[in-house]
Amino acid sequence: MSYNEPPNYGTPPPPPTPGFGAGGYGGGGGDHPQGTTILILGILSIVCCGPLGIAAWVMGNKAIKEIDANPGAYNNRGTVNAGRICGMIGTILLIVGVVAYIILFAVAGSVNFSTS
Asked: What total of structural domains would you count in the chain?
């Protein structure tokens, strides 16, 4: 035995630990083809264009039904659900904004600006 070698006690080293993707449930299929589109529409509905939230909400509901009908085919349910929820939030913000404008114009129209 030389000084550079570790001592051999007759036991093999432990096997390497598996990575995050090894083993488990079998992986599932690929991404739903509209998952990224739904997420982008949902985010845009919150940031700049509220009507896109309606599209994200409707497309997200349809995609969630497709994913739930065949759970082994798609693995991006979280992305689709996040886009759907962002679409809901964007749609609600759009409705609140429209109602606020209606109230603002109704109040402004009822104010009398005469100074006599």
From this structure: 1
